[in-house]
Design goal:
Chain lengths: 231, 409, 405
């Protein structure tokens, strides 16, 4: 079953008189359990595509299906619900809420889902464990290293039990060691839990972790199914 | 909903510096409003407080039917004036309660005849609160056992051409529609700097009035002097039910011209204070706009985590309101502190004016009140403004596409 | 300097909404201050005008032993040959009107009701009566030779349930201390909208007043109206004579003028409060702006901008905001003041404080008040920038740059 299916999607932005075509007709599909990278230089459209898949944005034309459901015509509230239950995000800039501790950041999606105190505690502990940060639970983002922050973000992304995690340049702000650690964590989680991972990146160190690489250029997919290759 | 409250409250606490600034702004604004209110109330006391004293007290109690014909002063005795006085003295707001007899009359001297109001008073009861007693310019205030003695104002003394110790004829309306005439001696003269008012009344001892006008052992009015202006409602409400068959009024009904003056002044002042609140409202709006702006990325993140736009709005509105609540509390504390201090010391205006040379009516020392008169309304307004001021930026932020918000730097 | 201003202007423009709201807050603050000042000034002018028109005129010439509280009718206290003297005074170039008036105290009596009144004997044809004439609600002044006519104030008539044509008894104290009594017919009713006045003042023709009080060819005062009230002192000097005293309107209204000072002092604290609220708004906005622009300040500092200049930048922005806000304030304030000047506020009866005030206050904004308040508002705006500017200058560039993340 396809977790993600994208049909002939375009996305253009108007800024004043300037019109940019970020995506110019993309079709692809991603299966359950994949660990896939969207690769391409800056401006290739990979981030835009990721945002469309993640219901963070709407295509100008074409359709996007998540678990068989057409999300491209959903209204705001429905898209939000989609994001709450089915999709998790990891961002380049860590995007943790700066005033909350690691524990509280990971707990957030569970709070929003209305889980009880005991359920939340158990789950957050487990998640922080699985990313190796159980002992940093009460630290704030400004007290954590870049790598640690990103791992907290991964834990948070998993909190609501999504079937799909989207990561946008997750290692861009990390040094090699931290970057490898984060990617290693995500690989392990993909194997353990079967959650589908898709990330957008142009960092070759990351690409080596992916089992499938989709190459993009100038708003189009140029290579769908190239098998993952050690670089 | 309680989840949102908890989240909002946690956010407010964790924001630290930003919350502090907003809270200070609102708190300061509210404290200033309280000072404004306290000052205005203080001025009213200073200017009108004495006027009320000299016109005849804060609250007047008469027998039923007294006010039937406005402008006339019937000699209607109270069924049990002592009981009324005792009841009144039990109330905390009452500084003094005393019995009076009022009737219309004519004072005649070698200069001619002058229409006056004759007021029989209990000197011991009224001495502590009597403005006239505090401004004796010749002779002395009355004593209870005075016979054929009158206490008159300087304006009347000048018009009548009499001085301390001189005699004049006083004719007053008695019971059974008769006029009783008597020769009086001027026992004392008071000067409050307002000849027109001084010309209107002559004071004699209650006992004398009872003898002269056929009301032995009785009185036509019980007069109450309160601690401050504004307590009349409470006192009337407390007394009226226990005194059926009496008419309980305050200076507001008996001297409507004074009430109109204060009422309109305070109406004008209210317009001003509404404008001040609007200015504060703009400030709060501005601050909240910026606060939301700064947290745009966070808003995008919340959206990414699946929070609906409406829910994000609620969260921010709650944050704004909670900050408002804290600000209000801070403001109240600050306002009470400041007004409390100032209310003790008082503001001395005497160097700005030599007014006191002219009139004893206006005290130039102003004591601001605590400013709690309008507090509830003001606090609620600040809260509402905070909620509304948070509404606009919150909606705006929540309705951005998360994609946009997230890539916001 | 110009560069600084240009930069400041551009910076303000970058966040147009915030700049607008800050300027708006300042503008509203200034507008409110102008309105408050105008209302207080208008109130005072109104009552002064009222008193001059009805009571003191610009000058009064009296016998030097005359006491207006006593309203003595002894010939020694009065002016002899008042009509002749009035004519002499009227001949002076600066004088518009000079007319004799006689004051007496009396009692109006109807059935059992009595009311103490002041009786004024006037020359019905004199222009000095204009305020009463303008306020005639029924009937007219009694004619100069009318021996039984009286003009009453409307409030007094209402209290005694009287109308034009009704009869009242007037008791008047005469010059030798007797009380003379006569029945009069009400010829007219007036209202000057100053209740303290209308309640207690009745008019008789001068000749009749003189006759009934036995004052004969005497009057209490010569009321003088000038073309220009500022000349009162000068004309007073010219009117000195044996046994005569000339009182200017300033002297006659000392109480009022003192009260004006008191009210103005009282207002200062209120002005401070308004300024306090406005300043709080501005300071907080600026402080938030500093925090928001931390990174930018860090960059500027890193590329070599000195602390002084960073502070100057914030002062310049604050100054421009001040100018914008003041423009807004003068605009809004101007509109409000114009409305308050034309329409006025209804205030009812202010009788008891002894001051004469009409039933409406009309605002009046002086140039001096406008200038003072504007300058003060601008200074406050600049002062408001002190703390934020100091904050900005204190930032370490490295901290600032990092903080943006």
């Amino acid at each position: 079953m396809d977790v993600v299916r994208v049909e002939d999607v375009t996305r253009s932005f108007k800024a004043g008189k300037l019109e940019t075509n970020a995506l110019r007709g993309v079709s692809l599909s991603i299966e359950n359990g994949e660990f896939t990278a969207l690769v391409g230089p800056s401006g290739s459209g990979k981030t835009t595509l990721l945002q469309l898949i993640g219901c963070l944005d709407q295509p100008t034309s074409g359709r996007v299906f998540i678990n068989g459901q057409d999300v491209s015509r959903l209204n705001r509230n429905q898209r939000a619900d989609m994001r709450r239950s089915t999709i998790g995000f990891v961002f380049q800039f860590f995007a943790l809420i700066p005033t909350l501790t690691a524990y509280e950041n990971v707990e957030m999606p569970l709070l929003l889902a209305g889980k009880s105190q005991e359920e939340r505690r158990a789950r957050v502990q487990q998640l922080l464990d699985s990313v190796g940060l159980a002992d940093r639970a009460s630290h704030r983002p400004d007290q954590l290293s870049g790598g640690e922050q990103q791992r907290v973000a991964v834990a948070r992304a998993l909190a609501s039990g999504p079937s799909l995690i989207l990561a946008d340049e997750p290692t861009a702000n990390l040094d090699t060691a931290n970057g490898e650690q984060v990617m290693g964590t995500m690989t392990r989680l993909n194997k353990e839990t079967g959650v589908t991972f898709v990330f957008a990146t142009h960092d070759p160190r990351v690409v080596k972790f992916a089992r499938r690489v989709i190459t993009m250029q100038d708003g189009l997919v140029v290579n769908h199914n190239a098998p993952s290759r050690k670089v | 909903m309680s989840l949102y409250l908890r989240l909002a409250w946690r956010n407010v606490r964790r924001q630290g510096r930003r919350t502090l600034i907003v809270v200070l702004a609102m708190g300061f604004g509210l404290a200033l409003m309280m000072m404004y209110d306290g000052l205005i109330a203080g001025f009213e006391q200073a200017i009108y407080g004495n006027a009320v004293k000299i016109l005849g007290g804060n609250v007047q109690i008469h027998a039923a039917g007294y006010n039937d014909t406005p402008g006339r002063r019937p000699l209607l005795p109270l069924p049990d004036d002592q009981a009324v006085v005792d009841r009144a003295r039990a109330l905390p707001q009452v500084v003094a309660a005393s019995r009076r007899i009022k009737t219309g009359g004519l004072a005649t001297s070698r200069e001619g005849a002058f229409a006056v109001e004759i007021v029989g008073i209990e000197p011991e009861a009224e001495l502590p609160v009597s403005l006239t007693a505090q401004n004796v310019s010749a002779g002395r205030f009355l004593a209870a056992e005075d016979e054929d003695m009158a206490f008159i104002g300087q304006g009347l003394a000048t018009a009548m051409g009499v001085g301390l110790g001189d005699r004049f004829t006083l004719a007053g309306g008695s019971t059974h529609d008769q006029m009783r005439s008597r020769t009086m001696t001027v026992a004392g003269i008071f000067d409050v700097g307002l000849p027109d008012i001084e010309k209107r009344s002559i004071y004699i001892a209650l006992g004398e009035a009872q003898r002269l006008y056929g009301l032995s052992g009785q009185s036509t009015e019980v007069v109450l002097f309160l601690h401050s202006l504004g307590q009349e409602q409470a006192v009337t409400a407390a007394l009226a039910p226990s005194l059926p068959g009496y008419e309980v009024d305050s200076w507001e009904t008996n001297f409507p011209e004074l009430q109109a003056a204060i009422g309109t002044k305070s109406g004008v002042m209210n317009v001003f204070s509404v404008i001040i609140l609007m200015i504060a409202g703009i400030g709060i709006l501005n601050l909240l706009l910026m606060a939301v702006y700064e947290r745009t990325r966070e808003i995008g993140l919340l959206g990414a985590m699946g929070l609906r736009p409406g829910q994000i709005s609620i969260l921010f509105i709650l944050e704004g309101t909670l900050m408002g609540a804290v600000g209000v509390l801070a403001g109240i504390a600050l306002g009470l502190l400041f007004n409390g201090l100032l209310g003790r010391i008082g503001l001395d205006y005497s160097q700005f004016t030599s007014l006191t040379e002219y009139t004893a009516l206006i005290t130039t020392r102003v004591y601001p009140t605590l400013g709690t008169e309008k507090l509830l309304g003001r606090a609620v307004t600040v809260l509402v403004i905070s909620a509304l001021a948070a509404l606009y930026p919150a909606r705006e932020a929540a309705h951005r596409e998360p994609a946009e918000a997230l890539h916001f730097v | 300097m110009i560069q600084l201003l240009k930069m400041a202007y551009r910076d303000l423009g970058r966040n147009r909404r915030r700049s607008f709201f800050s300027a708006l807050a300042l503008g509203m603050g200034l507008a409110l201050l102008l309105l408050m000042a105008a209302v207080v000034e208008g109130e005072m002018r109104g009552s002064l005008e009222s008193t001059i028109r009805l009571e003191s005129g610009h000058l009064q010439v009296r016998a030097d032993t005359y006491d207006e509280v006593k309203t003595s009718l002894a010939w020694d206290d009065l002016i002899e040959n008042p009509i002749g003297i009035a004519a002499q005074i009227a001949a002076l170039a600066q004088v518009e009107i000079a007319t004799p008036r006689l004051f007496a105290s009396g009692i109006v009596s109807v059935g059992d009701e009595t009311e103490g009144v002041r009786v004024i004997g006037v020359d019905p044809s004199s222009g000095a009566n204009a305020p009463i004439r303008d306020g005639l609600v029924a009937g007219d002044f009694p004619a100069a030779d009318d021996r039984e006519g009286v003009l009453l104030g409307q409030p007094l008539a209402d209290r005694l349930s009287l109308h034009v044509g009704d009869q009242v008894t007037l008791l008047i104290n005469t010059s030798n201390g007797d009380v003379d009594q006569q029945a009069f017919t009400i010829r007219g009713l007036y209202s000057t909208r100053t209740p303290t006045y209308d309640d207690r003042t009745v008019f008789l023709p001068l000749a009749k007043a003189q006759a009934i009080t036995r004052a004969e060819d005497h009057a209490s005062t010569i009321l003088v109206i000038l073309h220009d009230r500022q000349q009162a002192e000068a004309v007073a000097a010219a009117l000195q004579g044996p046994g005569l005293l000339t009182v200017t309107w300033q002297k006659a209204n000392e109480l009022l003028i003192q009260t004006e000072q008191f009210a103005k002092a009282y207002m200062i604290v209120l002005y401070l409060i308004v300024l306090g609220v406005t300043a709080t708004v501005i300071v907080n906005t600026l402080v938030m702006a500093v925090f928001e622009r931390t990174r930018e300040i860090g960059i500027l500092s890193a590329i070599g901008m000195r602390q002084r200049r960073i502070m100057a930048m914030f002062f310049a922005e604050s100054g421009l905001l001040g100018v914008g806000g003041i423009a807004l304030g003068l605009g809004i304030g101007g509109l409000l003041v114009v409305y308050a000047t034309k329409q006025g506020f209804y205030i009812g009866n202010m009788g008891v404080t002894g001051m004469m005030l009409g039933e409406r206050i009309y605002a009046y904004l002086t140039v001096q008040d406008t200038l003072t308040l504007t300058v003060v508002a601008f200074i406050v705006t600049l002062l408001a920038a002190l703390y934020p500017a100091w904050l900005a200058a204190r930032l370490e560039p490295v901290e600032a740059l990092r903080a943006g993340q």
